[in-house]
Amino acid sequence: MINSAIDKFTLIKDSIPLVQAIEYYGLHPIKRGRYHWIKCPFHNDKNPSLAIYEESFYCFGCGAHGDVIDFVARYFNLEPLEAVYRLAEDFNVPLPEEKRLTKKEKKKIQQRIKQKQEEDKLYNDFLKAVDETYDYLCELNHLYTKIKQVINDPKDLELPEFAEACHNQDLINYWLDLLLEGNIQDKLFVVEEVKQWKLSKKL
């Protein structure tokens, strides 16, 4: 049984190029020099930091590494042997002494894949919301700074625009600090607070 498992792992690694598998699952490697690179799907990667070699990968951001089976197992939250069966099915690679997956086993794998896709979508939506909130706050902060810079006459200090700029800029800088340095809960808090704050401005 152990030898059979080893044969399956070896056959898959020998049959399916890592770059081809990564492309098949919807990622887009970029060729730079001798190797391919992608934004690492295993952490919040701003620039491509995961290097794809001939038979292995390594992320210089989070340290994730391994071969094609390790990548698929981690990407879809599967056990290594489940990743082997997934690759064999997707790339039509017949396995030695292959034990066909039962409907229950296939359903379990599909549920894990669906869960991973849903989690990825939620996380990507969260990252997009954080980026949009950050850009909005930066623009507003820049606007308030310009308002304060044009105040020359002491009488202008009583203008409502100046008072608003002074009051809101402190809050905006606090929110920006949380978006840059805070944890996920802090960032979710800021996204929601800014959303409610923008709604209140429209009233």
TrEMBL record:
Keywords: Metal-binding, Zinc, Zinc-finger
Repeat recorded as keyword: no
Alphabetical GO biological process terms: DNA replication, synthesis of primer
GO MF annotation terms: DNA binding; DNA-directed RNA polymerase activity; zinc ion binding
InterPro entries, per database record: DNA_primase_Znf_CHC2, DnaG_primase, Znf_CHC2
Every Zinc finger CHC2-type domain range: 40-88
GO cellular component, one term: cytoplasm
PANTHER family on file: DNA PRIMASE
Name assigned to this protein: CHC2-type zinc finger protein
